[in-house]
Amino acid sequence: MVRTSRWRLGRWLCVLVAAVSVLSGCDWTMFRYGPARTGFDPTESTIGIANVANLQQKWAGGTRVFDGILTAPTVANGVVYQVSNFTLYAFQAGAGNATNCSGLPRFCKPLWTAAAGGFIDSSPAVVNGIAYVNSTDGNLYAFDATGRTKCSGTPKTCAPLWTAATGGFGSSPLVAGGIVYVGSGDSLYALDAAGVVNCSGTPKICTPLWSAATGGQVLSSPAVVNGLVYVGSGDGKLYAFDATGSTHCSGSPRKCTPVWTAATGAMISTQAPAIANGVVYISSFDNKLYAFDAAGTTHCSGAPKTCTPLWTATTAGTGASAAVAKGVVYVFVELPAEVLYAFDAAGSTHCSGVPKTCTPLWTASPGGSEGGFRPPAVANGVVYVSGGQDLLGFDAAGSVNCSGTPRVCAPLWTAPRDGFGPVVANGMVYLGSADGNLYAFGLP
Fold first, then answer.
1. Which has the closest alpha carbon to 48: 417, 386, 380?
2. CA distance 282 to 284
3. pTM of the prediction?
């Protein structure tokens, strides 16, 4: 009875937060949580510093793939979505998973699956009942997220509602303001998320509302905040475009040029920009974290406009996509050794010099050297990261289980599961694992 009441209270709080949020409930609907790509779930209230050590595996979902999952899951409307190789899998979310599950420990089969024409190299984005994935066959796929329309058979499989040709190998899609953005080839593409404008035929095929070329391959997943869409490129630059496809855009088909750009010291690969409090953070292959003015004003000049960093921080290797929460930016580096870094997001504490450089508030060493650019996730005072063959949770404030000068932290919780990009939603932690399974962790 107590557990049920706690769950209902948690869901009520999620609905209350959703009333003033652009997201749905306490879900994690796309790569790095939402359009700002912060990797931070501000609605989580069930798991925290006091009880994270009690997390236990609730169930595992099989994807029938044994060479590892390379993308993070997403959670929307009671379903957790995971891609593996050529297929999108949909599992019932939550701790009390019953549908298609059996045995102890509990093992689950998907509610439905959907195949793409190539390897799916992106995390799904699930918004307004549609699940979007990007594939190496050069197409963006849109599926009915409920597993009904264009779905049939036992086990159930789904065909796409529509597809759109892009440039090839690319990024995780993002949905904001009725537009789905995806990086592919050397360009950023913007398409009608509903699959109506610039869409026709049977099967339905869509063309972009607009596109924008960069100087290199776009593997970086775009971020959208305050009317600008940001994306990193293989040419080592961060690009900011008008998200509506109006300013600096012309022609038919419509092409856009950047509102501003900023150079880093090396290529940007799968690292997504993260935007918080007017600052955009991104890691580069020069083993640095960069912070730029998101508006393109401070430290920016010229025509075309270019920006220099507000501050930088050097790490021991190339970091994954950053997470930003409550004034701290977190970066996880995997090679030559795994290190989790926490920096002052404002560029004040432990920062000095001209140009300004910062050193960590604290660090943690999971103990491996895996590679693969696995980003951290933050929720309710805990930062989660997959490293050293384990899934770990640390005090995001750098206080509990932390000591020394410089400050070093030990984990609050460890689970023997290795994988890509933990996500936190509705009192659960989900991880796509290197063993080909999706794992769900919750409180007793």
1. 380
2. 7
3. 0.93
CA distance 99 to 102: 9
Distance CA 429, CA 346 (A): 28
- DSSP letter for each residue of 219-287: -SPPEEETTEEEEE-TTSEEEEEETTS-TTEETTTTEE--SEEEE-SS---SPPPEEETTEEEEEETTT
CATH number at residue 56: 2.130.10.10
Per-residue pLDDT at 234: 96
d(CA 281, CA 274): 5
Rounded Cα distance between 391 and 416, Å, is 6
Query: What separation in angstroms does the CA of 65 have from each of 70, 89, 118, 131, 436?
Result: 11, 11, 15, 21, 5
CA distance 32 to 62: 23
Distance CA 283, CA 265 (A): 10
Give me the sign of the Cα torsion angle 121, 271, 279, 423.
positive
State the pLDDT at residue 68: 64
End-to-end CA distance of the chain: 13
Question: From edge to edge, which strands make up the β-sheet containing 162-165?
Answer: 125-127, 130-134, 139-144, 162-165, 205-206, 199-200
Q: Quick one: how far is CA 357 from the chain centroid?
A: 26
- C-alpha 287/C-alpha 289 separation (Å) is 7
Contact 426/10 with Cβ under 8 angstroms? yes
H/E stretch holding 52 reads: none
Return the pLDDT at 122. 87
Residue 376, both tokens: 């951290």
Cα 262 → chain centroid: 22
What 402-410 contacts at long range (C-beta under 8 Å, 24+ apart), as own/partner pairs, is: 402/362, 406/359, 406/360, 406/362, 406/363, 407/360, 407/361, 407/362, 407/363, 408/362, 408/363, 408/364, 408/365, 409/362, 409/363, 409/364, 410/364
pLDDT score, position 336: 81
Q: Which domain holds residue 79?
A: 2-442
Local mean pLDDT, 10-residue blocks, the chain (444 residues): 38 43 69 98 97 97 71 96 93 84 91 93 94 94 98 97 89 97 95 98 97 95 98 97 98 97 96 97 97 98 97 93 98 89 98 98 81 85 91 97 97 92 95 90 96
Burial environment of residue 184 by CB neighbours within 10 A (0 to 12, 13 to 18, 19 or more): buried
Q: Measured between alpha carbons, how far is 126 from 79 in angstroms, rounded to an integer?
A: 10
DSSP 317-383: S-B-S-EEETTEEEEEE-SSS-EEEEEETTS-TTEETTTTEE--SEEE--S----S----EEETTEE
**DSSP code at position 426:** T
State how many domains the chain has: 1
